[in-house]
Design a protein that fits this description.
The chain is an alpha+beta fold. The protein has three helices and six strands.
Amino acid sequence: MPVKFIAIPRKDPANPAAAPRYYPRTKSSGVIEVRQLMERIAEMSTLSSADIVIVLEALLQVIPQYIAEGKIVRLGALGSFRLSLQGEGVDTPETLSAKHIKSHRILFRPGREFRKALKTIQYRKAAK
């Protein structure tokens, strides 16, 4: 099934007087909850839904712990998670400190098999 997209107008900040240009943005077709994932995985394996919940709960606990230690967490073909920082620039490396960090986020980089699967995605413009 193709991924639907819509047209989103955006103005050019360098030229506010210019007409907006339209860019594609995905249109969600719904949300898959953990229970649905568990049921699908249980159908594909010899694991029960309860076993899968235990593994997911454990991942939820240990991945943030390792990221907080400065580690990159690789989950094989699925991909990896790492911490990224946003902050203020300073004039010299000696004056840079933790107070210059304004926020952080987690970056996910898909693994080779995941990227390969993503290459098969097809797109279709959504009806208004």
